[in-house]
Design goal:
2 copies of one chain form a homodimer. Chain A has 368 residues and is α/β, with parallel strands linked by helices. Chain A has 13 helices and 17 strands. In chain A, helix 2 crosses helix 4 and helix 11 runs antiparallel to helix 12.
């Protein structure tokens, strides 16, 4: 049984046969789902990932508050099963919503009225409960991000071979579907991955052939990353053992972007296990870099009250409890300024590519 | 003299020599700039483009209100000239801001304190006044969008040849820099361009090989388009005579997205002349399509007060004054519903690719 067939069977067993069985045996039909509440999300110190715990909830049919959601869960599970069986192309969550939205015969009720409040949470429930990813269930999310460097990928659906050393200044688009059943990573010559927060910084590094001169993959998720770049990063790290270095602004938002690549996030705890890179290193900018690399004061920007508030929040997160991060957060507070990665051009346009990054990487001057 | 050398000379003549000459002749140094105010933007009926008029303003040195902006204009012009002369890589506007931000010696004043309010407007002033694009001045904006279909591009900076029939399910990234000095379009086999508003719709069409079956370029700018997709579209239409069809949701926002691809926008009037495609056709969704293609009522969504307000605004825009658009706007108002392009999957997952689009294109059933 391949992975797709296995998922079809699981959808059928878990959301079909089980419920049918309940009906036959005159039990209140029910399904058990892992809770995606904040209370069930936690930082797993051993795995160094934000994860969901084992708390479960029962969704039952004969319950005024749950009957509709119960029906919605079965409708979505059944549609996903059908799409997989018919080998339909992957669809977006908006399209799934429209496939299933209809009037319930003889009533004024619709199956679904809203995507965000109704369809999306059930999709997440199913992902979690079957311990899988929506992309494996034939659903995709809108991607955003670019990649260049020595990697060859075979696209199983289009028969194309993508060579990321030949993608021009624009770089290769990180696709919506980066699972192996779509996106088969064939060959990697690069020795590590540099993830850059800012598009402008990434673009300049690409023009300067940073990836070629340093034999790395150069990636950007354009700020806070969408699903696909995070998941691709995790695959590259786990399957190909590529070290991951993250380069962001010096501010709490930059630290946090790094932490999402690394440990994931509470909101998407169910996704973090599959998309986190616990070994990712924070390359910078760090407070110590400012003095070390003599980053000119004219380009520092005063921290505002939102920045200070965010620093305080980060200090409380369990995955920022390590001494080196508590120290860094404290130093930032005392420093009183933030420094954007874009600003390094003021030293020299090629300072980031020629001096800062190679030096940091050579000295392994990271936070982790 | 090539284009770059010409621009260097223009920057020098217009923002350097002229001002120096004023100083020497004891005139109040000044530069003349085309005004980018709303009052100077208009719809040119003959060219069918939103454009800037001829109103000019003088920016002078010996003026309390203008001295700083005068200095900023010269600083930016001089930096751009330097970058072009030194053949520096293109930089982003944030990077330009940091290159120029510094304390003015002996004062508490900075050259620039803010990018959006200070650097960006001056960049636009220089683009307009020299009748050029920032990309030709070595500046780029963050792009967003994907493209597939029969087109080959030679990237002059990286020596890569990009074949957009071999880009996999992710498609080719539309790069930040699509001017010929970077992005040399070598070969086009496609017969037209289909621009799709929604990423999800685009992705599904790409999976269904719509571009191959219909020999077109399939592009998305992901909603309201960034600079690069618009400019690339204009180049493909103007230089390669490719017809452009735009496919959006049935709602005033969709109509407007089409109109921006076609005539440009008031806010970026100076860009519209170079990025508009006056011959672009609105393929749909139109109000008439709903009946024609029997789009199920269960997927219509009631227009809300913002939609109605937007319809009223569109009816007043000169470029929506054509009878066919006034009629369409009126029909939408009377119809009372909007219909998203994603929703067509409810007919059948491949309805858009197999029925709707080919039929509309064959019958040339467009609004223009």
């Amino acid at each position: 049984m391949n992975e797709r067939e296995k998922l079809v069977k699981e959808l059928e067993d878990y959301f079909g046969k089980k419920v049918l069985d309940d009906f036959k045996n005159e039990r209140n039909p029910s399904i058990e789902l892992i809770m995606r509440t904040l209370g069930n999300a936690y930082y797993n110190e051993k795995k160094r990932l934000i994860m969901l715990g084992n708390k479960k909830e029962k969704r039952t049919f004969l319950s005024l508050g749950q009957a509709k959601k119960f029906m919605q869960t079965l409708l979505i599970a059944s549609q996903l099963k059908k799409n997989l069986q018919e080998d339909q192309p992957a669809i977006g969550t908006r399209q799934l919503f429209y496939l299933l939205k209809h009037n319930i015969e003889g009533t004024n009720e619709n199956t679904f009225d809203e995507q965000r409040k109704e369809t999306d949470p059930v999709v997440e429930d199913i992902e979690v409960t079957l311990d899988t990813l929506r992309e494996k269930l034939g659903l995709f999310a809108v991607p955003d991000g670019y990649l260049v460097g020595s990697m060859k990928v075979y696209d199983r659906k289009t028969d194309d071979t993508l060579d990321y050393t030949k993608m021009g200044l624009g770089g290769g688009a990180i696709p919506a579907l980066v699972e192996d059943e779509y996106y088969h990573i064939k060959e990697i010559g690069a020795k590590f991955i540099l993830v850059v927060e800012k598009y402008q910084v990434w673009q300049l590094l690409n023009q300067e052939k940073f990836w070629k001169n340093n034999n790395c993959l150069l990636m950007t998720g354009k700020g806070q990353s969408a699903r696909a770049p995070r998941r691709l990063l995790a695959r590259l790290n786990r399957e190909f053992k590529l070290p991951v270095y993250v380069f962001t602004d010096l501010d709490p938002w930059g630290y946090y972007i790094h932490s999402v690549y690394k440990q994931g996030s509470i909101n998407l705890a169910y996704f973090s296990e599959k998309a986190g890179v616990p070994d990712a290193k924070f390359l910078g900018l760090t407070t110590k870099d400012i003095e070390k690399y003599d980053i000119p004061k004219k380009n520092w920007i005063k921290l505002n009250h939102l920045d200070y508030k965010r620093i305080k929040e980060l200090r409380k997160y369990p995955w920022f409890k390590k001494k080196e991060w508590q120290d860094e957060l404290k130093r930032l507070e005392e420093f009183k300024y933030k420094v954007e990665s874009d600003s390094l051009v003021a030293k020299k346009i090629d300072f980031t590519a020629k001096n800062y990054l190679p030096d940091k990487i050579e000295k392994k001057d990271f936070l982790s």
